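Final report, Chapter 2: Outcomes

The project's central promise was a pipeline that accepts a single protein chain and returns its three-dimensional structure in a standardized token representation, suitable for archiving and comparison. That pipeline is now operational. To close this chapter, we reproduce one record exactly as it appears in the project archive, with the input sequence first and the structure output second.
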Amino acid sequence: MKRIMLLITGFLLLIMLAGCRSSNNSNGKLPLTKENVQKVFSEQYYVRVDAIDEPTETDKGSVEITFGTKKNVNRKDSPKLIKDIRKELHENFDIGSDNHIELYNYNKKLLGSTQYDNDKIEIGEIPYINIEHLISMELPKYSMSTKFNLFNPIKGATVTATDDEDGDITNKVKLKNSEVLTKLGKQTLIYEVIDSDGNTRTSELDIEITK
């Protein structure tokens, strides 16, 4: 009797294991694991899997992955390489679009990246806008009676922009919402700069506009 029970138990375990395997591979894709991701890309890239959210019954999986090339790559080629990486990820794994990918050259310079659910591919480093101003408990004031200075919008404030590849790009800074300069009260100035690769950075400054 014990032997029969053991045989039945073993048979049931085999059925359960077979069911698990078929559910994992029912769509012909690999389980979303660190080891599988590294295996898929190991020939072409050094791969570091920073985070994995496995797929569920209601949501597809997502990943954060850092790739490093094994040879020198032109920065301008990074959009195509990242698109190819995205394509291969979707072909091999059950993932959605909410992924973060960073691609570095063999010399550890950032070639490009994607920001989660944003389809835009950024080439190289993102530019930086620096707004220096005095810290106060009150909002800094700008009077409509004075001429607006883009790079010195309020007393004691200076706006500059830099980029790793382009250097000083302060002359490319623009005010995205100049219409707020015609409104009284608390307003937010939104500064924007775009580097030679088309990467965009914005920065904000809260002010109080008076007559």
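Archive annotation: DSSP finds three helices and twelve strands in the chain.
This record, like all others produced under the grant, will remain available to the consortium after the project formally closes.
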